[in-house]
Specification:
The structure holds 2 protein chains of 2 kinds. By secondary structure, chain A is an all-alpha fold. Chain A contains 13 helices and 2 strands. Chain A has a two-stranded antiparallel ribbon with strand order 1-2. By secondary structure, chain B is mainly alpha-helical. Chain B has a domain of 226 residues. Chain B is globular. The chains are: A mainly alpha, B mainly alpha.
């Protein structure tokens, strides 16, 4: 393989692998924000999910049980966020940071004994059998969780467009007055959306500890949970957009290391910042004073 | 009210410890010893509180206008880096000159970085919460790029760092106290910000804008300038925090600067209900709880994350207690005749 191919294959691998935690957290964040609430705590949920998944997989020997447990733990922590934010005058941005700290704390506290042992991970599905190049084969070994994430993205997009549940959620997120007039229970809808969103973020954490990098330690997450907030803005609150944005972020994240592998060592970190610069550029280009970002739920605290 | 919430959180945490079969009494005794029990622990507490004072102001100042800026981390990191750069440029100058130049460079970098957020908000109406978060990630990437690239000291192998700042530029400890002066600078900044917010017409205009933007605009207040100014001032303070961390603690810029002080500052500002004076006790309290982590690990065999759990619980309780303001008669503001 020449160096251009090496870089392209590494970016493909990044788009399929590094993207998965981004995908789950951003889908979860998207779901929560479409119901009109922001959850910066998904970073803590991600870390907690990673720990719970790893510990469960180690203790039971079944990684899929770990994924389920991570979703449950995420939903529980999200439920705390949802319940407290339902009280009047509680700021959901600050509350999210508190949840972030609490999630990290609980995960590090109970995760100490699981740093050493190795738990069974999730196997990948090889799609690269047609190629004789080992890098291509490894790049195309797709985790089933990624496929679940893709299905979730399309399912969620369909739900927002056509299903009763999704339409109700959007009403609650766009106009609390309209939702009240329709007799919808705003707090319950937001609570459930926050719980489901954090459950998805927990699955993203499970991917970190069970698939890639595939171990548990305290520096496992590099801030994917907080980045997901920016990613959702970039994706314009569209689940399929979240899929594309996650793959873009994953590929950009893989660009630096792969360029280094072929001898281009400068600007390593700037490539990593590229998606953020892009997000900022999109915001500057599309927002006008007095008009919200297209697609932004009207009830979101950051929309006002 | 915050005290009540802290008590509630403590009670929950005691239950948590009891459920694990640990003694809450010895836990809190250790936290006390580790945070405030000896001069050594006080020193540790105060040096942890110093950057928190400034990053909390970085949130509290824009908050007077109703802006939620959460990108203090970016301003801190870039402030520390440009302060280091300034210190390296001025190699031979006398210590105080270098220190002043470093402080100016750090504050300027932070001010520009968050000033951009203010301009985007005031001119284009782009939400400051999102932009400041995105800008923080860009800042950290820029920081890593420069520290591992052009500014790197080739001798730093495992942990890429810049060259060390000149010996003369290292901030001396406070005479007789053996504490670095960050806590003093932070404290003075808190008092000055409080004066600015509560006792000047500019501060009044800012609070009025925070109360009702339309009304402030109709009064002819320079709302756009106030927004840019508040964000830039916040950024300057966070940048100064970065300079202090470099000049008093690390002596050079490296990944230790990216320690999450910016995010802890957000919480402290909210715990202090955006009051510049209330930030001081809150920052010392949290600095103390953080400082006790190591002792807990050694004496009780608890992971040092136990203090993170406690902090998280306190935050959740205090933020939740916001809802009680004005609900319970005892807490309602006295009616003025």
């Amino acid at each position: 393989m020449n160096s251009v191919e090496t870089v392209l294959v590494a970016m493909l691998a990044g788009a399929l692998r590094v993207s998965t935690p981004f995908l789950f957290v951003s889908l979860g964040e998207c779901l929560t924000e479409r119901a009109g609430r922001i959850n910066l705590g998904n970073e803590g949920v991600l870390v907690l999910g990673a720990m719970v998944a790893y510990a469960t997989s180690y203790l039971t020997g079944n990684p899929w049980l770990g994924v389920l447990a991570a979703a449950g733990a995420g939903a529980a922590l999200g439920g705390l966020h949802g319940l407290v934010c339902a009280l009047t005058r509680v700021n959901d941005v600050a509350m999210g940071i508190a949840i972030l700290l609490a999630g990290n704390g609980i995960a590090f506290f109970f995760g100490k004994p699981f740093v050493q042992p190795s738990a069974p991970g999730l196997p990948g599905i090889p799609f690269g059998g047609w190629s004789s190049v080992p890098q291509v084969q490894s790049a195309l070994t797709v985790s089933p969780l990624f496929l679940v994430g893709v299905a979730t993205a399309f399912g969620m997009a369909w739900m927002f467009r056509a299903a009763r549940l999704g339409l109700r959620l959007r009403i609650v997120g766009d106009s609390a007055d309209a939702a009240r007039a329709l007799g919808l229970n705003i707090n319950r809808t937001r609570l459930l959306a926050t719980m489901a969103g954090s459950g998805l973020a927990g699955v993203g954490g499970a991917f970190l500890s069970l698939v890639y990098p595939g171990s548990w330690n305290e520096s496992l997450s590099s801030g994917q949970g907080l980045m997901a907030v920016a990613l959702v803005v970039f994706a314009r609150w569209n689940p399929v957009g979240c899929l594309g944005a996650s793959m873009l972020f994953g590929a950009a994240g893989a660009l630096g290391p792969s360029l280094q592998a072929v001898g281009v060592t400068s600007y390593y970190y700037l490539f990593y910042a590229a998606p953020f610069v892009l997000t900022l550029a999109v915001l500057v280009a599309t927002v006008r004073p007095g008009r919200a970002v297209r697609g932004m739920p009207g009830e979101l605290s950051i929309a006002r | 009210m915050p005290l009540l919430a802290i008590l509630a959180a403590t009670a929950v945490f005691c239950a948590f410890l009891l459920a694990l079969g640990r003694s809450p009494a010895s836990f809190f005794q250790l936290v006390w010893t580790g945070a405030f029990g000896s001069w050594f622990s006080w020193r540790n507490t105060l040096s942890r509180a110093a950057p928190l004072l400034l990053t909390a102001l970085c949130v509290a100042v824009p908050a007077q206008l109703g802006l939620v800026v959460i990108g203090g981390e970016g301003a801190l990191v870039l402030g520390g880096l440009s302060a280091t750069w300034a210190g390296l440029q001025m190699g031979g100058a006398p210590g105080p000159v270098i220190q002043l130049a470093m402080a100016a460079a750090g504050a300027a970098a932070g001010a520009v970085w968050l000033g951009i957020v203010g301009v985007l908000r005031a001119r284009r109406g782009i939400n400051e919460t999102v932009t400041s978060l995105v800008m923080a990630y860009i800042a950290i990437a820029l920081f890593n790029q420069l520290v591992e690239g052009p500014l790197r000291d080739p001798a730093s192998l495992n942990k890429p760092s810049t060259y060390a700042i000149p010996k003369a530029a290292v901030l001396p400890t406070l005479p007789g106290l053996d504490v670095h002066p960050g806590i003093l600078i932070g404290g003075v900044a808190c008092v000055l910000c409080w004066l600015l917010i509560a006792r000047t017409t500019t501060g009044f205009a800012a609070r009025m804008t925070g109360g009702n933007v339309r009304a402030a605009q109709l009064q002819g207040l320079p709302v756009a300038w106030l927004m840019v100014g508040a964000c830039a001032l916040g950024g300057a303070l966070a940048g100064l925090a970065g300079m202090i961390e470099v000049a008093a603690v690390h002596g050079r810029a490296n990944a230790s600067l990216v320690a999450g002080y910016g995010y802890s500052g957000i919480l402290i500002a909210f715990l202090a209900r955006q009051n510049a004076l209330a930030i001081m006790p809150m920052a010392v309290l949290l600095g103390g709880i953080g400082a006790a982590g190591g002792l807990l690990q050694r004496r009780m065999g608890l992971p040092d994350a136990a203090v993170l759990v406690l902090q998280g619980m306190i935050f959740v309780a205090i933020l939740a207690s916001e809802t009680l303001y004005g609900r319970i008669r005892w807490f309602q503001p006295r009616a003025t005749a």
